[in-house]
Amino acid sequence: MSLAPLTGGVPVLSHPGAYFQRATREDLLELKKIGLKGIEVFTSYHTEEQVNFYLQLAEELELVPTAGSDFHGQIKPRVHFGMIKAGDYSMIERLREKRR
Questions:
Q1: CB 35 within 8 A of CB 11
Q2: Region of residue 76 (left: phi > 0; alpha: psi -120 to 50; beta: else)
Q3: pLDDT at position 88, please?
Q4: Residue 38 in 3-state DSSP?
Q5: How far, in Å, are 47, 58, 90, 100 from residue 8 at the CA level?
Q6: How far apart are CA 95 and CA 37, in angstroms?
Q7: Per-residue CA distances from 86 to 21, 62, 69, 90 (Å)
Q8: pLDDT of residue 80
Q9: Mean pLDDT per 10-residue segment, the chain (100 residues)
């Protein structure tokens, strides 16, 4: 099985520290074996400790750390567009490099 999409996208795991089960180093290693290229580090779902943990894992496992607000309008009123102030355009450039 491979995560490599046919459309030119790059597989990125979103908010790995959210919900009931947290993604571990071992989880990320398994996902990387089948094509994972990035991990959402900066998100409204993560605590500061989770951001640090997943940023360290991204660097260690050579995954692109990404950011996302999870802005969905009225269904998530506490999440505002642009509230995540981490990262820069280099994330996009690094993801593009991973497509090759």
A1: yes
A2: beta
A3: 78
A4: strand
A5: 31, 21, 18, 9
A6: 8
A7: 24, 18, 10, 11
A8: 60
A9: 70 83 90 94 87 94 86 65 72 87
What's the token pair of residue 11? Answer: 């597989």
Homologous superfamily of the 12-98 domain (CATH): Metal-dependent hydrolases (3.20.20.140)
Please state the domain extents for the chain.
12-98
pLDDT for residue 1: 57
Q: What is the pLDDT of residue 99?
A: 84
- φ, ψ at 94 (rounded to 5°): -65, -40
Cβ-based neighbours of 86, under 8 Å, separated by 6 or more: 41, 42, 51, 67
Q: What predicted TM-score, i.e. pTM, was given to this entire model?
A: 0.80
Q: Which one-letter DSSP state was computed for residue 93? A: H
